[in-house]
């Protein structure tokens, strides 16, 4: 298929996919003639891209036309839609037309429906920090890409240390591959502990401290997270996700549900076996406490998005959140 649409917030993975696509289709000796990246600020960018894609390549290899940061799936004029309808089905096999965007395509638009019909659409979304199983699965995938075997314990340590940061994950795995001289033997956890800087401060640890009513520890963690330049809204997103998961697990458990698969589905937990540990975490927490915490977190997110000062606002809300769970 000569048309591709890549989208998502994980720019690093997307750029690697773009490079792979170019390397596979461009002839190195003729790439300067057959490769063109068209930025979004260029006038009539999509029209130019369509015209270029219809032009035969010069010399060997294929022609690659990249429409970067396109908004064609967020807004599309009638004239542009008509041109897309005319051109996309007729892109020659000697060309590759690539659209990329950080935004999710609007499924209601005719341009999106058209691309779904004629393009290979790939998502490069950042995995939420609380989805541990998905992060560990990504660790295994990237390790396979770089040619490194991991023990389950090593993969778990990497997931905890790096989270969903794919750029750092690739860098750390390449470093571990250079260090590990036995490629046929799975990398042990000791190597990860010795070579990968593992931060003891994470947003998930902050969530645990808040759930336990540990105000001092929570304030220390939020300060250290901010000092490491962790974006405030990302911290809040992790907390919202974790407390929402706890809330659903508590709600389903208190309602008498015993099937872990049903609870996992309601709480959006990929591995039903994890429900036991989540239930254990919130055994001494009440449903009203979790509801109050989530309400405070959503208020915090609203204030930050309206431009409230990050440090003061976070510290204030952290104290209020920890107070929700303080033993009476």
From TrEMBL:
Enzyme Commission designation: 2.7.7.7
Keywords of this entry: DNA replication, DNA-directed DNA polymerase, Nucleotidyltransferase, Transferase
SUPFAM superfamilies according to UniProt: P-loop containing nucleoside triphosphate hydrolases (SSF52540), post-AAA+ oligomerization domain-like (SSF48019)
Segments forming domain DNA polymerase III delta subunit-like C-terminal: 201-310
Domain DNA polymerase III delta N-terminal stretches: 4-121
Keyword Nucleotidyltransferase: yes
Family from the record: Belongs to the DNA polymerase HolA subunit family.
Keyword Metal-binding annotated: no
GO terms for MF: DNA-directed DNA polymerase activity
Protein name according to UniProt: DNA polymerase III subunit delta
The reaction(s) this protein catalyses: DNA(n) + a 2'-deoxyribonucleoside 5'-triphosphate = DNA(n+1) + diphosphate
Annotated gene: holA
Organism: Leptothoe kymatousa TAU-MAC 1615
Enzyme class: transferase
């Amino acid at each position: 298929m000569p048309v591709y649409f890549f989208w998502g917030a994980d720019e690093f993975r997307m750029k690697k996919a773009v490079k792979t696509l170019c390397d596979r289709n461009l002839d190195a000796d003729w790439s300067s003639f057959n490769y063109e990246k068209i930025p979004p600020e260029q006038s009539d960018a999509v029209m130019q891209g369509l015209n270029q894609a219809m032009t035969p390549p010069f010399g060997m290899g294929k022609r690659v036309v990249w429409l970067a940061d396109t908004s064609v799936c967020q807004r599309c004029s009638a004239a542009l839609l008509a041109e897309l309808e005319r051109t996309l089905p007729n892109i020659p096999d000697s060309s590759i037309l690539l659209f990329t965007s950080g935004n999710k395509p609007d499924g209601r638009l005719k341009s999106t429906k058209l691309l779904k019909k004629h393009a290979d659409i790939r998502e490069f979304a950042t995995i939420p920090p609380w989805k541990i199983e998905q992060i560990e699965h990504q660790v295994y995938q990237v390790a396979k890409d770089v040619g490194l075997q991991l023990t389950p314990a090593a993969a778990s340590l990497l997931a905890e240390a790096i989270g969903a940061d794919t750029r750092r994950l690739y860098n750390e795995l390449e470093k571990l591959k250079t260090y590990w001289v036995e490629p046929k033997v799975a990398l042990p956890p000791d190597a990860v502990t010795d070579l990968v800087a593992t931060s003891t401060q994470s947003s998930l640890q902050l969530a645990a401290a808040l759930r336990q009513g540990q105000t001092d520890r929570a304030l220390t963690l939020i300060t250290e997270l901010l000092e490491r330049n962790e974006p405030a809204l990302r911290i809040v997103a992790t907390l919202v996700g974790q407390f929402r998961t706890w809330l659903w697990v508590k709600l389903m458990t208190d309602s008498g549900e015993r099937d872990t698969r049903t609870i996992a589905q309601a709480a959006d937990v990929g591995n039903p076996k994890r429900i036991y540990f989540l239930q254990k975490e919130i055994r001494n927490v009440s449903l009203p406490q979790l509801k109050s915490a989530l309400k405070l977190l959503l208020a915090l997110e609203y204030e930050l998005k309206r431009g409230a000062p990050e440090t003061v606002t976070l510290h204030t809300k952290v104290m209020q959140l920890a107070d929700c769970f303080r033993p009476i």
